[in-house]
Design brief:
This protein folds into three domains: 44 residues, 434 Repressor (Amino-terminal Domain) (Orthogonal Bundle), CATH 1.10.260; 129 residues, Rossmann fold, CATH 3.40.50.2300; 140 residues, 3-Layer(aba) Sandwich (Rossmann fold). The strands form two sheets. Strands 2-1-3-4-5-11 form a six-stranded parallel β-sheet, sandwiched between helices. A six-stranded mixed β-sheet has the order 7-6-8-9-10-12, with helices on both faces. The protein has 13 helices and twelve strands. 42% of the residues are buried. With 338 residues, it is α/β, with parallel strands linked by helices. Helices cover 45% and strands 16% of the residues. The mean pLDDT is 93.
Length: 338
Amino acid sequence: MAIGVKDIATAAGVSLGTVSNVLNHPDRVSPRTRARVEKVMAELGFVPNESARQLRAGRSRTLAYVVLDATNPFFTDVARGVEETLAARDLSLYMCNSDNRADREANYLNRLEEQRVAGILLTPVDPESPALDKISGRGTPIVIVDRTRAGDTHCSVAVDDVLGGRLALEHLLDRGHERIAFIGGPSSIGQVHDRHAGALAALADAGLDESHLVRIDTSALSVGEGRQAAQRLAGMPGARRPTAAFCANDLLALGLLQHCVTTGVSVPDELAIVGFDDIEYAGAAAVPLTSVRQPRLRLGRTAAELLLDEVENPDHVHQQITFTPELVARASTETRAN
């Protein structure tokens, strides 16, 4: 049977009000009495009922982050930035994984709203979904992470993915590559679309038409899909085979690189590779990977700060913050051997 506050009060020889103050307002209790009550709590194995406390206070101390893909280290790094910010305020974080599925995302959002979390951080399957407006309208604030949304109905934090795509292509063009593969998908993912658009813009600026960018679609942004894309590249006739590849994220790039290493394709002499995100594994790869860096921790911290402000500040104004990416050049795109 669970130990309750009445049991603690009886065992410590104090009133219920004193036990309540020890739990909620310890500064109102003398150090000696507080120490006695806390000792009894420890001896009896008392666990405070946080749900009941939140119910009495009318406010939760828990927020949530619904990520798009829990297998991608990018999102766990963003979540670490969120958690650091919340921990400094003695707040807790739930993490949920939609797995890029709209139905799963909807189930989590409904459940989190039912549990009365203070607010939700969300990397949405569809940033324009009307469900986001309905949830916010019912009193649970939502901040959109790593996506943008038309208008100013929500706070959002994201990176300029079009610029990131441009940086990747310009880097490869500067190294003499003119037949380049773009590997990524599905195209319904906003980042994939924007990074591809940035790559096309860089080609146009260089006076090259779209035929110089060979698109290889993938069904997911994963290592396995990167390996399959490598097989499709290897099957192309030599005269048309790209000499470089820009991958929509680092997991694809690492899968591509893995296939090259195991099949004896020299990187970067036979194939230069650029990824996107600059996750920790990028620099530690067998051939250190050139990547477009996103400020992952900063994305998480900023998103958390915006959500807390919306939760606590009645004069809160929505902000849409876009960070600038940077290209980190490593061995996977070193100047091609003569």
